[in-house]
Amino acid sequence: MSYQAHFKVWRGDAVGGGLADFEIAVNEGEVVLDIIHRLQATQAPDLAVRWNCKAGKCGSCSAEINGRPRLLCMTRMSVFGQDETVTVTPLRAFPVVRDLVTDVSFNYAKAREVPAFVPPADLKAGEYRMRQEDVGRSQEFRKCIECFLCQDTCHVVRDHEENKAAFAGPRFLMRVAELDMHPLDAADEMGVDRKRSAQEEHGLGYCNITKCCTEVCPEHIKITDNALIPLKERAVDRKYDPLVWLGNKIRRR
Ligand code: SF4
Ligand code: F3S
Ligand code: FES
C-alpha cells in the first residue's frame, strides 16, 4: 500500500542551508534511501547523497533521521507513522560538503594515527597460531563497516570541535583495543606502547562510557563493553601495577 509522506531534507553547503519540505510517495517495504532516490528522480535532481551498496555493508549512506544517526539504506519507512514528518539531515559531527554529504576525512586522519599490526619477528608466514577465543574477540571488531555513526554520536566530539585533535573516537579506540588484545602483535618491540598511546595520544580518558556509540552501531558491535572498557581496565591496571610503576621508574634513571 502506498501513501504520501512528508519529508524535510537538509539542503545546503559549507556556507549554510536549511530544511526543504517535500510530499513524496512511499511504497510498502521501502527504506529511507528509496525515498531520497525518488526525490532525486522526481523533485530534486541535484540533491546530494552518498551511498553505494544499499545493503548496510559499505557504510556510505550515514545520515541523521529525526535526529538519530542511522544508515539511510537500513532504516525502513515502516518504523515511522504514516503521518509523521521524516527529517533527514547530514551527520552533525562532520563538515557538510553538500546536502546530505559530509566530509568524513577526520576519521581517515585518526585511522592513520594508529600504528598497524606488527607481526612477531621470529615467526614466518604460516607459522602464526592463535586460540579461537582470541580470534573471536577481534572478529567482532572486524565487522565494522566504517559508517562513522559511532564517531558522529559520541558527545565528546559531536558538539565539541575543540576535542577532535585529542580524541580518536570510539571506532579508532576500538582499533587500538583490537591490536592491544592481539596475542601476536609485537608493536611494543618497535617502541609502540598501545596502552599508553590509547591514553596519551588517542584520548581514551575522554570516554566516560556513555555507550551512545554502541547504541547506534548498525553491526551491533559492543564497542563500549568489549573494546573501550577492557582497554580502560588494562591501561589503568598498568598505570597502577606496582611492578610496572617500578619498571618505569628504573628505566627513567
Ligand atoms: Fe559504524 Fe559500528 Fe564501525 Fe562505528 S563501530 S564505524 S558504528 S560499524
Ligand atoms: Fe563516546 Fe562511546 Fe565513550 S559514545 S563517551 S566513546 S562509550
Ligand atoms: Fe551501503 Fe547504506 S548504501 S551502507
TrEMBL record:
Q: Which residues form the signal peptide?
A: none
| All residue ranges annotated as the 2Fe-2S ferredoxin-type domain in the record | 5-92
* Pfam families associated with the record: Fer2_3, Fer4_8
Note whether RNA-binding occurs among the keywords.
Answer: no
Q: Which pathway is recorded for this entry?
A: Carbohydrate metabolism; tricarboxylic acid cycle
Q: Print the keywords alphabetically.
A: 2Fe-2S, 4Fe-4S, Iron, Iron-sulfur, Metal-binding, Oxidoreductase
Highest taxon, organism lineage: Bacteria
* Cofactor entry: [3Fe-4S] cluster; [2Fe-2S] cluster; [4Fe-4S] cluster
Keyword Cell membrane in annotation: no
UniProt lists the family membership as follows:
Belongs to the succinate dehydrogenase/fumarate reductase iron-sulfur protein family.
PANTHER family hit by this protein: SUCCINATE DEHYDROGENASE [UBIQUINONE] IRON-SULFUR SUBUNIT, MITOCHONDRIAL (PTHR11921:SF29), SUCCINATE DEHYDROGENASE IRON-SULFUR PROTEIN (PTHR11921)
What protein name is recorded for this chain? Fumarate reductase
Give the source species.
Streptomyces varsoviensis
